[in-house]
Amino acid sequence: MRNVALSRPIVRAAFCAFLALLPLGTAWNLLALQYFPSHTIRIGPKLDGVTYDKPVILSWATVRDGSFQKAVTSRVTDAMAIRPLLIRVNNEIRYQLFGELTAPNVVRGVKGQLIERVYLNDYCSRTEGMGLKLAADILPKLRDIQNYYENRGGIFIYVVSPSKVAHLPEYFINSVPCPSTPEARKQLVPDYVGALRQGGIHVVDTASLIHSLKGTYPFDLFPQGGVHWNDVGGARAVLAIVEAINQQAGRELIPPFTFTYTLATPEKGADRELADLLNVFFPHLGYQTPQASFQPSVPCAESPARNLDVAMVGSSFGHLPARIMIEGNCLARFRFYYYLILGRFGGTPIHELQRNLVDSDLTPLRDAKVMILEENESFVDKAGYIDPLRALVRRF
């Protein structure tokens, strides 16, 4: 009894000390976030997702409209050391008891399938003839870029990557109002690609390729808890890209590869990115995805492709092909420019080399012997990096 009695004051004292230290931890984080970001104090698992700080601007105008107060409140709240733990506790309760997703841009479809809302909105807003209109707008831009590289003896490939919603519509189209017609949804990519090819653009339609493989494997080519293609989908796409490059070169410029895979529960990465974005303690990961390994047809130490300057400009769908082309095709000098300026990736194993590129950092793109330009079918002619790339090559 005495031990129990003594424990209560100790617990109360510890709890009071914890509450007293919280403001000090918040004050430290406010300072550290600006000068020592790696030394901030966080209690609980790191939160997934990207947040952007609101600028704190002190002026009569910002005080009057409340934006200054909101920005200060947001900064102080984000600096709370216990914030990650509280968010995950709240999210877990809402997720497990009420089935509520706390990530506003994530939609849950049938059988636990997850998708980002932007892809679903695109798929459900497709109209008849949209592919031809988009192709007419982007065709002169692609022609300028393609002409630049071909006039210098290089190779240009334009890649259309697939959308998970377009690949597995049966899981999602009943989750939200979907006014587009089935014909409009199906015809956008074929119409778009057909018009570009007729206009002379070298297109690799990995979207239609992946959709045609539906049911070929004992698993879907998109993971349940992710929005991007899995290893097998990426491998099949890269094989098609390499074949197109070699056809243009008139020889085996890039040796192909073979691959094998095993099925496993996803531990990290793109195969569970949306499940992680929910920021709960126990995301539903009762599914398996293929983990592929790649066998180059020529040992990388002997492959002439290791000295080939290959560049890719593209969206988040470009990360996996970039890794595969470095590992499977021995492209040691491969560089992936994520949204052109957000980051440059390369190396073995692939990693981020530079972030937030400026104009001078894009100069090596002009000298690439092979240029791969990727856009996802959900955002063709909308990605935002086609015009800057065209402006870059037109300056020379």
UniProtKB/TrEMBL annotation:
Keywords: Hydrolase, Transferase
UniProt KW Hydrolase keyword: yes
Example of a GO MF term: hydrolase activity
GO biological process, one term: alginic acid biosynthetic process
Name the record gives this protein: SGNH hydrolase-like domain-containing protein, acetyltransferase AlgX
